Amino acid sequence: MMNGNSEITLLLVDDEPSILSSLRRLFRPQGYRILSAESGAAALALLEKESVQLVISDMRMPEMDGATLLREVRSRWPGIMRILLTGYADITSTIAAINHGEIYRYIAKPWDDAEMLGIVREALERLRLEIENRRLSELTHLQNEELKALNAGLEQKVAARTAELTQALAFVEQSHGELKKSFLATVQMVSSLIELRSGPLGKQLAGHGRRVADLARNLARRLGMPDSETQNVMLAGLLHDIGKIGLPDNLLGKPYNLLDGEQRPLLQKHPQVGHNILIGIERFRDSAHLIKHHHECFDGSGYPERLSGIAIPQGSRILAVANDYDALQVGTLVQRPLKPTEALSYIVENRGKRYDPTVVDAFVQLISETRSKGFIELPLRSMHLKPGMLLSRDLNHRDGYLLLAAGSTLNAEIIGQLVRMEEVEGQHLTVYIRQEEK
User: Fold this and answer.
1) 204, 212 in Cβ contact below 8 A?
2) 179 to each of 29, 125, 176, 232, 284, how far by Cα in Å?
3) What is the mean pLDDT of each run of 10 residues along the chain (438 residues)?
4) Could you tell me the CA-to-CA distances from 374 to 48, 395, 436 in Å, in that order?
5) What is the rounded CA–CA span in Å between residue 80 and residue 102?
6) For residues 127 and 54, is the Cβ–Cβ distance under 8 A?
7) I need a surface site. Which of 149, 194, 212, 411 has the fewest CB within 10 A?
8) 128 CB neighbour count, 10 Å cutoff
């Protein structure tokens, strides 16, 4: 953990002593420990002996240029943040370095001091968050392994884990104020815990929480909900299945209508358990309330409290439609996975029974607008992409620049680059694929 600038070491690399002197004058008042080298070889020798958090290297140097140096740093010390100083003439090499993941950012020369300091602060903050994310990932992995061994006393054992999970999710609360994107990445990681344990349905369930969250957010916007409430609906969509964290694997991978009389009551506890897990974290209190009631039915036949009509929170009524539409296609609600048109028919047939008629009408309009384009959009993670797939939307990097334009056709090389980007940056990409209607 990095608790102050005095514990942070910067390595400055440039073959011009005057540039190194300028950089040292800029960073020394910030309290950083400063190392410098006048060549790539000297920099690598220093890194063999010193603990360094960030390297800033000039592009143009004899024998070993900056891109080559930072590529070697990434290979040998992947945890070190890397920034490239570059001139206009080096832009082609700089873009190549960005695309291959050798650098975090580039800074054009001559630089602006305030911009330089800001970029370094952002890079070090991102490094801190990545370290904390790894700690959280290891913690949740350990919990997941422990939960596989649970086969009795579900409620008691979940209660024993709630304090640990609350402590882990407290980081999410803190990171939201510091860096929204890292906050959302962590929530998505937590939401994938159940999907990773779902046995034969694991591949189909991958991305279920993200798909439900995206669809629920679009529905909330269409229904005119305020931005803050729309955000709560989206977070509830990502975490709506967190209450299943203590369920046996054979329940997670079995369609609901095939569960027996003993299994259904166990599964029906998960909305309340999810509420209990999240309610102690201020940022999730509203979302926890939505999660508790997302299996209530409009006609009062749902669970856990058999609420009906508008007594069910609007966000929960939205989640019910979004969740069931995806679950019908995955195969966790009825015996066989349904096609999108069949899933839509199921939703419409249960209008006024399971689902709020107003939400169903908005949902039908939303799906119809998508299909009026002549295709259906399928949101996928990079690991599920296949050569020949066609992008239906622009794919942008989280820093705002375009990675792939809508209409691009994927090949094995592009898919490999996207997968590597996810691994290096620790940020999940959602790629929208065009799927022709059948």
Assistant:
1) no
2) 25, 9, 5, 17, 17
3) 72 94 93 94 95 93 90 92 81 72 82 91 89 84 70 57 64 50 56 57 66 91 93 90 80 77 86 89 89 96 95 96 91 84 91 95 85 67 86 74 78 90 79 73
4) 57, 20, 7
5) 11
6) yes
7) 149
8) 19
